[in-house]
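Tutorial handout. Part one gives the primary structure; part two gives the three-dimensional structure as tokens.
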Amino acid sequence: MKPYSKPTHRGHTAIVLLVLLFGGCATYHPKPLPSATDLAPGVEQLKQQAQSSSGTTGAVLSLDEVAVYAVGNNPDLKARRARLGIKGAELYAAGLLPDPQLSASLDHPTSDAASTVDAYGIGLGYDIIPLINRGARLDSAQEAQAQAGLELLWQEWQVSQRARVLAVNLASQQRQVALLEQMRDLYAQRYRNSSGAVARGDVTLGVAGTDLTALLDTLSRISRLRQTLNDTRHELNLLLGLAADAPLTVHLPSLPPLPAAGVWQGALQTMPQRRPDLLALQAGYRSQEAKVRAAILSQFPSLSIGINRARDTSDVNTVGFSINLALPLFSGNRGNIAIERATREQLGTEYQARLDQAAIDVDRLMQLQGLVADQLAQLDEYVPVLKNLVDRGREAYQHGDIDAVTFLNMENTWVDKRLEQIDLTQTQRTNLIALQTLLALPAEGGPSGSPHQGGK
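Part two.
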């Protein structure tokens, strides 16, 4: 057995190098994909997951709860949040210092010349340019991460808006279905009475035919509306992270008064300081500014320095210093500089286009709100009068004082206008939600922060 001998100095050096090279290496661990959905089976489970302290119970949600649950549970948003980690990794990568470069060579003489030895060379080099532009690259990565976070926030605003709109649509469509079902029951009873009266010879066949036509038309309208309601409910359930068959009812708050145009215009002027997508574009522009700066810094000649130790075949040992310098005669990074500057220009025009689009959209929605409010006011004035006429006409129809077609037209007109009232109220609500999102205003009220007040 050989006696124990301490590691040599070169042995220590080799061990240190191995530790440095492999000590910080990552290891691979597989992560399987999910095999089933993670949708909540019902609203109660949704509230328990969010630890909601809302006063609503059962399968009833307020508009605020709809927005909160949609942002927290929407599957697409969960995926976007996972992608946000990529920007954090890019920021981490941008802050890392470049690794030194180690080179080694070994030459073995093949001639029979005397006094020759194996030649070797060891060099350690370092590229200087990544140190020069590191600050600019780090600034760019930081702004890019901020941009990604703000873009995610804007997506959350969009999902919140979509969830509110769907909730309003759901409640409105349910009200319309309920109204039509009441009319269906009335028409069904009326047709049973008239068909029996025809058999007895008390009324003409035209009366029963008119009642049957009204019943069939109403059944068709209910069927179409239920199809739309089915689409709305499933889309809303998905946004909320609810199972497809989970029952859901939305409690709508009362509508706020229509704010003055000057209030919306004032909010439009300060919108760039609030709206997440505009803030994201601002961060992206700053990130691109840093990329332009980094590209300009990178146009300087690529420079790397190093130290070398070598021995030739005649056993002459040397220690030297090396510099590698790229001559910027043909490229000089001018192509990358042009690309980064053009990208900066594109981002600037995109930001301007977003501002212009917001101004047009806000004005369009403001005008629409006024038009809808005027039309709704007219219906509010005349529909109750029409309802009174319908009630009186029904008595006259039952006594045979007016014909079936006249009464049916009057009654259908009242139903149509009542459905129109619900539609217009729904439009007002969805327009308000759109304005709040466009101007990045709190959802609980308009620009003045007024709470919701009376509605239909």
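Part three, for discussion. Residues 1-7, 445-456 have pLDDT under 50 and may be disordered. The chain has eleven helices and six strands.
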